[in-house]
Amino acid sequence: MRLAATTVHALRELGLDLKLDHPLALRTWWRVGGPADAYAVVETVDQVAGVQRLAEREGFPVFVLGNGSNLLVSDLGVRGLVVQLGGDLARVQPDQDPTLLHVGGGLKLARFVQQAVTHGWTGMEVFAGIPGTIGGAIRMNAGASLGETSDVLVDATVVRRGGDVTTLSHGDLAFGYRTAAVPDHAIIVSATLRLREADPVATFAQMQHFLERRKATQPTDVPTCGSTFRNPPGDFAGRLVEAAGLKGFSVGGAHVSLVHANFVENQGGATADDLRAVIEHMRETVAQHFGVRLVPEVHMAGDWSHWSADAHGRFRPSKRS
Questions:
Q1: What distance in Å separates the CA atoms of residue 44 and residue 60, rounded to the nearest whole number?
Q2: Considering the chain, what is the average pLDDT of its residues?
Q3: Which residues in the chain show pLDDT less than 50?
Q4: Domain ends where: 57, 85, 113?
Q5: What does the DSSP 8-state code read for residue 229?
Q6: 261 and 304 belong to one structural domain
Q7: Which of 45, 52, 289, 321 suits a disulfide with 75, CB 3.0-4.6 Å?
Q8: What pLDDT score was predicted for residue 1?
Q9: What positions carry a catalytic annotation?
Q10: What is the pLDDT of residues 133-164, one digit of tens each?
């Protein structure tokens, strides 16, 4: 929904540098997507709570934009308010307990991993190679062969819609494969992480080997969102997509990578509709060939009202945006 003038004024009264009709394409890894009705960086828990209280009272949606990875923003844009976490909400605060770290939900994982190497924070290598933020990693229990977020998370602090601040324990989050029980509409503002005892030299050498191998087997010179689909039990999404003959399949500027079939590239000029059309075709083709319905890691954000399911459950756009 478009924000009323009184809502815009109230948001600015919270100290936000609010930008209206703000383009999001340059804030996403795929470099596509329409504008946000309004966009702001929030830097304190008090600001987040103020936004959430106002959202509850005025009835507008709030969408948290992390690092713009694993995200497909509609060509029609995002209604309501889009926020990114910055300031204190994107920093590391050591604890008096030397085995704990307090980390802002908006901290980019690539930067955090660099800090971990510098300070010898072993255990944080579970975030290596993941294109996101701490908050996003918790929400999807992100990880790879070096481990996953749930291995090191102690608790997470969230601000619920309405402004209540709550700390959720590891058990509260009920982690699963690429899932966590984060309450609806809650914004993850910080987390407590536990370091693991290990030899830093050996640990970070292993991490570097992992990153070099990943770089050699994934496309790095064109815009992608990272992995498009979760791996199904006992198999790999990329293997299934490749076995279905989909490497190189394209719609407009969207293209299934020839380097790794679980990546969809924007080879120039792709729209969000192009990218979604490729993703839907990948799902349908793999399901037809192997009876496996792939689950996207990609989150479809914004106004997709021009897409709908046909009689066979296949999603198609009713019109080109």
A1: 20
A2: 94
A3: 320-321
A4: 85
A5: B
A6: yes
A7: 321
A8: 58
A9: 178, 227, 297
A10: 999 999 999 998 899 999 999 999 999 999 99
Instruction: Give the containing element (helix H, strand E) for 37.
Output: strand 35-42
If one counts every other C-beta atom within 10 angstroms of the C-beta of residue 216, the result is 9
Q: Which residues contact 171 (CB under 8 A, 6 or more apart)?
A: none
Identify the domain containing residue 298 by its residue range: 237-317
Question: Which of 85, 117, 140 is the last residue before a domain boundary?
Answer: 85
Single out the residue of 114, 194, 121 nearest to residue 156, CA to CA: 194
Q: Each residue of 255-285: b (16+ CB within 10 Å) or e?
A: bbbebbbbbbbbeeebbbbbbbbbbbbbbbb
Q: CA 292, 149, 276, 61 torsion: positive or negative?
A: positive
For the chain, the straight-line distance linking the first and the last C-alpha, in angstroms and rounded, comes to 18
| Residue for token pair 């080997």 | 209
Extract the tokens encoding 261.
Answer: 């079939």
| Structural domains in the chain (count) | 3
Rounded to a whole number of angstroms, the CA Rg of the chain reads 20
